[in-house]
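Reviewer 2 asked us to include a model.

Predict the structure of this chain.
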Amino acid sequence: MNVNNFRSKQKITNYLRYNLNRGSIETPIQDGDLFNILMGVLGFHPNKEEKIGNGIDCFYITNCDINYRNNKFKILRLDETSVDFSFSKALKYFKRL
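Predicted model (structure tokens):
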């Protein structure tokens, strides 16, 4: 599955929010549909080179720093550094391929 399987940007957003809210905190997302969708969405992020760095090991879910009731995606890079990943920011630049 990839971003082109969705009929709209809203469908992608709904899919990612659903997974963000039901996913396990700190569990690596390294393969499967969710990983493929996140990689596809990352491709639209205006700072994708910075987010990718020297390569991506996995995505994972963690609590937000400001509101611990909310979750966010983070990227774990191959050099073991991590960075926040806003799929909503990336989807502002979404264009169907």
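The chain has a mean pLDDT of 93. The chain is about 35% helix and 20% strand. We have added this to the supplementary material.
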